[in-house]
Design a protein that fits this description.
heterodimer; A: mainly alpha; MetI-like fold; 2 domains; two-stranded antiparallel ribbon; disordered N terminus; B: mainly alpha
């Protein structure tokens, strides 16, 4: 604990006093210790998991944590349907990257264009509003009717799912720029081009990135649901395989690996954002 | 307000363009099907969908229920999951925002479960609950609870420290501060969570019904595909979209009513 003892108002006379008081060990202090609580929480969670498995409340519907770890290990070394865990992960990741790249390459410029030009907005907005409320899952059937059950239909669903938040965020990002910023660039003698390049893009960048972040998590959901419906590779395939073989350890292993990758990709985008737009002011959530 | 709202008359062309764009969209859609550019086995024209809509209002064949029954089942499932998510998620998030004990206990588990897409739970819920309503409600609940917790948590965290310090100065207890300052100041975020959670719940519902259902709008779409009936697929999609929008509007209305006295 540091306290500043100031005898006079002059800062130069400020003396920093290091006061370190050793607190007696108490339950109250322990209950405020974050790391202790985290440990308790995780212990409780895994304990409960193990207990639920032990009592067979859910019958054969759950596998204990250690079996899941073994299942993940097995997946890494053995192959399921001709592919190891890495192959399946890459299959899912590959679909996401392709779909995500195509969607953001179309949606972000379109959103910006819609926000900047009201004629484009007048033409595209009604159609977009028509498509927007349909959940990406609703397109799965259409995609299968149109593209069969191969790779294109899965990528199509990812594109549809990620398109909406990308476009919406790019659009809102430009639209919600504070008018003061535009005033500044106008006062400095900027023209329309300067307004867009110097103010519009940098100010909308955080919003666009937020859209990409949302898109990414939606992309994981989309690829998973597409794989659950029909696939021969991918993490969703592992999960569905576990379901068909009535092996909850395989299902849980698929879920754990999926959670890890979804988390890792989100982390990458977060760092990318910090690197690319350090001027982002609002603190990110949670 | 530094910026006065100036009423600008919208030019005629800007009022005509959206209508024209929509008309064009439907005309192209109809044309593409009618002239056989896209085979009818892949895409149904708007008129076919409209005709099926009228028919499905009264006829239960071939998927076993009329449109209203499907919609009713879906709405009941989505609302149950949604309300349960609100009932659990919002208090949890609020507590996590203020009390170290709550955060320390709930956060690690929450962070572990959060990145798993709700759809991934479907196989497990089928193991646990079969394909009935409880399983679907569970998945919808899972998808709705995440935004509820995050938003309430952030809402409490964004409480102005000045207010908290002021309350401390006047000798308020922790619980008093939480009740009288943190919760009211978090309310706008909490209501924001309602909108997000509703959208998530509705999306997940369709996913859940895809894999395991015998009634509901998502099931209608799946049956459309299995029976190779493109009009039914499209009808299901449109109904899902419209119902989602309708629920969203209702929730927005409620939110406006409740938030009337609170400054944004």
């Amino acid at each position: 604990m540091t306290t500043a003892a100031t005898g006079t108002s002059s800062i130069a006379n400020e003396i920093q006093l290091e006061v370190r008081d050793r607190k007696p060990f108490s339950l109250k202090a322990l209950l405020k210790n974050r790391w202790f609580l985290y440990t308790v929480s995780l212990t409780l969670f895994f304990g409960l998991w193990k207990y639920v498995d032990y009592t067979r409340v859910l019958g054969n519907g759950i596998a204990p944590p250690e079996k899941v770890v073994v299942a993940i290990w097995r997946l890494m070394t053995d192959t399921v349907a001709g592919k190891s865990l890495w192959g399946h992960t890459w299959a899912s990741l590959n679909r996401i990257l392709i779909g995500f790249a195509i969607a953001s390459a179309i949606a972000v410029p379109l959103g910006i264009l819609m926000a900047l030009n009201r004629y484009v907005n007048a033409v595209v907005k009604p159609i977009f509003d028509l498509i927007k409320p349909m959940p990406p899952f609703a397109w799965i059937s259409c995609a299968i009717l149109w593209f069969g059950i191969g790779e294109p239909s899965k990528i199509f669903i990812i594109i549809i799912g990620t398109f909406v938040p990308c476009l919406l965020n790019a659009y809102m990002g430009i639209r919600l720029i504070e008018p003061q910023l535009y005033d500044v660039i106008r006062m400095l003698g900027g023209n329309r081009r300067d307004e867009i390049l110097q103010v519009g893009f940098p100010a909308a960048f955080p919003a666009i990135f937020a859209g990409l972040q949302i898109s990414l998590s939606i992309a994981w959901t989309c690829v998973l649901s597409a794989e659950l419906v029909s696939a021969r590779s991918g993490l969703g395939f592992i999960i569905i395989q576990g379901m068909q073989l009535a092996r909850p350890d395989l299902v849980l292993a698929g879920m754990v690996v999926l959670a890890f990758w979804a988390w890792a990709t989100t982390l990458i985008v977060t760092y990318l954002e910090k690197y690319l737009c350090p001027w982002k002011r609002e603190t990110s959530l949670a | 307000m530094a910026y006065e709202q100036v009423k600008v008359e919208t030019p005629l062309i800007l009022r005509v363009l959206p209508v024209a764009s929509l008309l064009c969209f439907f005309a192209v859609w109809q044309g593409v099907v009618d002239f056989g550019i896209v085979p009818n086995s892949m895409l149904a024209s708007p008129t076919q969908v409209a005709a099926l809509f009228w028919e499905k209002l009264f006829v239960a064949e071939p998927d076993g229920a009329t449109l209203l029954v499907h919609a009713y089942i879906s709405i009941i499932e989505a609302l149950t999951g949604f309300l349960l998510a609100l009932a659990v998620g919002i208090p949890l998030g609020l507590l996590m925002g203020w009390f170290v004990l709550a955060e320390g206990l709930a956060r690690p588990i929450f962070e572990m479960i959060r990145p798993i897409p709700p759809v991934a739970w479907i196989p497990l819920t089928i193991f646990w609950y079969g394909i009935g309503i409880p399983g679907k409600v569970f998945i919808i609940w899972l998808s709705g609870i995440v935004p509820c917790v995050i938003n309430s948590y952030v809402g409490v965290r964004m409480t102005s420290p000045t207010l908290i310090q002021m309350a401390r100065t006047y000798g308020a207890t922790d619980w008093d501060i939480f009740k009288k300052i943190c919760i009211p100041s978090a309310l706008p975020m909490v209501f924001g969570a309602m909108t997000i959670a509703q959208a998530y719940c509705w999306t997940t519902l369709v996913g859940a019904e895809y894999l395991a259902a015998d009634q509901g709008l998502g099931y209608l779409i799946t049956m459309g595909r299995r029976l190779a009936l493109p009009p039914m697929v499209l009808l299901g999609m449109i109904c899902v979209g419209l119902t989602g929008v309708a629920i969203g509007v209702v929730i927005e209305r409620i939110e406006k009513k409740l938030l009337a006295g609170i400054r944004r």
